[in-house]
Amino acid sequence: MNSIYGWTGKILIINLTEKKYKIEDTYQYKDLIGGKGINQLFLFNNIPVNCDAFDPENVIAIGAGPLVGTLSPSACRLSIDTKNALTGGTASSNCGGYFAAELKYSGFDNVVINGKSNKLCYIFINNGKVIFKDVCNYKGLTTWETEKKIRRDLNDERIKVISIGPAGENLLRTAAIVTDNGRVAAKGGVGGVMGSKNIKAVAVRGNQSILIYDKNYIKKIVKFYYKLSGKDFDALRLSGTHGAIFEPANNRSAMPVRNNQEEYWDPEKIKKVSQETINKLGFEKLRIACFGCPLYCSHFYDIGDFKCEGFENTNAMALGPKMDIDDPKAIIKLHGLSNAYGIDTDCVGTEIAWAMELFERGIIDEKETDGLILNWGNYKSALKLLEKIVYKKGFGALFADGIKVAAEKIGRNSIYYAAHIKGEDVFEPMRAKVAWGMGIALAPKGGGHCEGAPVTEGLGLSEKESMKRYGVKTAGKPFTYAGKPELIKWHEQFSAAINSLGMCYLGSMWAFAEGFSPKDYAELFSITTGEKLTEEQFLDIGLKVHNIEKSFNVLHTNFSKKDDFPPDRYFEEELNVGPSKGRKLDKEKWSQAITHYYKIHGWDPNTGIPKKDTLEKLGLGFVIKKLKNNKKLD
Ligand code: SF4
């Protein structure tokens, strides 16, 4: 057999009910690159249509791409994909850290798990061997305690672990999977799915080599490190995403304030929780990088009575302005505890902010909240409510299935104030930038800014530059609807392909103009694997993966065009302060834009269902067959 470069060449398929496994060849799926692409293929082919995310028949797939574990800068990402516990559609979650590289060194590109263990267990993958270990004594441990205990029990400090905390064990549909204390795969309730299978953790260790194709690889890889050395990346290196993005985002009206009533926060409050202030307070003790990343954007904080890591911009947004909390210690503690409990900070922030708005409006009161005074900025109540949510206690139990279900239980028009897309809690502001909001709403995983949502609208990109990069003139124009469907589609392809390689999105031109382009990724792929890829082919693979995700939703849900709209309040309530004062979304223009978006994708303009011709052109015959068999396609 010829050598395989980049990939390990093996996919581990686990039947957890029988505690058995088999191995498949990765190379047969190379047209989907790896990571997310291969994971999504296994979901589409193997999850029964009528199963719930928490049924044993659900599949959870963990994947590292072909560049992971090599010298490609920031090639550390792990894609975790499963049936979404909140929406019933697809979930695709992603985290950095060291697990993905160690998974490759342990001998596997992807791990696909179905079935359910009869007892709480962890799976240990050690240099190609797989061990299932019942660990009832791990019950109730936080993610931080679990990582430590596994390393101690197996007497190996170099073992890498992904695990769930009490939130996942308690089957919260907002539970996350955590690795390295602060790298979190959070979306879609992936931690709840792991909990439903009685998997406390997956641990990996190995020393197997990854072969590299190009004999001049070292010479060629150097230029990619230089690419990440420009001034934008210096800002990220110096102060992390919180330092580089938080204040500029506010200046561009991109801040979720008091449950998204506004998108601009008081500059005094911004200062109080800025990275500059955090640094002055001396909280930062260490800067930390994920595997092989020259950007080291993560922090380790010690705030006196509490230590944690991984705090970044979206955590600050969801746990600060969203609830009007301007105490940096409180925000850091909410973040750290969420990671330890294994719950998505975006969901927690969204849910508590929503409860605060209901409380402030008199829709709920102390009798319903177990005596908690949920006024804006009340971080003591926020901390108590976080714990109640994780342990499903009293008022906190309301949130076990996400904000949409909580609002349906409360009634009293509380759904109007609930920020969700397709049933998944979303923390993001959506009114001041059209493509940003639309990209979030159209994400197949049920909302999120790391797929089609571009950041270009806040950067004042010129028409010429916009045209050169995306083939439309309006990428830098925040309030314009024209051209935005094309811009979103481009980013969907780009993001899906990057997540299949296993690279960090923060190093790409999505985040900063000087970041990696499709051409760069195609070259990195080619020199690593020896498989020639052009930039067009790279984006085409992203398009293929995106269509598999979309088709999964068609197969498993009844989503229609109305589910691609954000909540009504974004169309009805104007922003009252900040540079985007007076802005709200326009329903008619939104509707026309997404019809156009369906058309340019080759999907039915009314339903958004991919057309047979489109799927055929993408080489997705198996998708056509399954959709037809389930009467989802004529
Ligand atoms: S940019 Fe930050 S999150 Fe991304 S890989 Fe590097 S250290 Fe990790």
What does the secondary structure layout of this molecule look like, with pairings?
Elements (H helix, E strand, L loop, with lengths): L9 E6 L4 E6 L9 H12 L12 E6 L13 E6 L6 E6 L3 H7 L4 E5 L6 E6 L2 E6 L8 H11 L6 E4 L2 H4 L7 E3 L3 E3 L4 H7 L2 E7 L11 H11 L3 H21 L15 H6 L2 H6 L3 E5 L9 E5 L4 E3 L3 H7 L8 H14 L3 H16 L18 H12 L12 H8 L9 E2 L2 E2 L8 H9 L20 H8 L13 H18 L16 H12 L5 H22 L12 H4 L14 H15 L10 H6 L3 H9 L5
Parallel strand pairs: 1-6, 7-12
Antiparallel strand pairs: 1-2, 3-4, 3-6, 4-5, 7-8, 9-10, 9-12, 10-11, 13-14, 14-15, 16-17
The protein binds iron/sulfur cluster.
The site of iron/sulfur cluster (SF4) has 13 residues, from loops.
Q: What's the CATH class of the largest domain, please?
A: Alpha Beta
**What's the total helix number?**
23
Structural class: alpha+beta
What is the CATH architecture descriptor of the largest domain? Answer: 4-Layer Sandwich
| Average residue-wise pLDDT | 96
How far is the N terminus from the C terminus?
42 Å
Domain count: 3
Number of strands: 17
Which radius of gyration do the C-alpha atoms yield?
A: 23 Å
Strand content: 5-15%
